[in-house]
Amino acid sequence: MELYQDGEPLLNKNFPEMARYLHDAGVTERTKTKTNGILLKGDMIDRMAESRLSWVGISVIASNEEDYQKIAHRHVNYKQLVENIGKYYAVRGDTKLYVKMA
After folding, report:
1. Which of left, alpha, beta for 52 (phi over 0: left; psi -120 to 50: alpha)?
2. Which DSSP string corresponds to 44-91?
């Protein structure tokens, strides 16, 4: 089951628990989502690790803070984004993690 369509799934603060519910209920063999990774920080990292998602794709739209600002018209602490992705990678468990640089 793919838990994304249009927009950022992590805007729903209950997303990790919803994903875990699907896993625990056994209604699907695999659960997948995509995110831009910006909201993957703080306790969301651990909650996502506990969600038991099968697959998470993270799309990073630039390779530095300046280019991110130009493309997204939004300030992002790029160093922190990269660190948070690394933290999630370290605790992700069996979740397959794919990071794509757009």
Report:
1. left
2. HHHHHHHTT-SEEEEEE--SSHHHHHHHHSS---HHHHHHHHHHHHHH
Give the predicted TM-score (pTM) of the model: 0.91
What strand order describes the sheet that includes 32-35? Answer: 32-35, 55-60, 96-101
Q: Number of H helices and number of E strands within the chain?
A: 4, 3
Dihedral of alpha carbons 21, 10, 43, 2, sign: positive
pLDDT digits (tens, 9 = 90+) for 17-64: 999 999 999 998 999 999 999 999 999 999 999 999 999 999 999 999
Cα–Cα distance measured from residue 35 to residue 33, given in angstroms and rounded to the nearest whole number: 7
Q: Cα–Cα distance between 88 and 70 in angstroms, integer?
A: 26
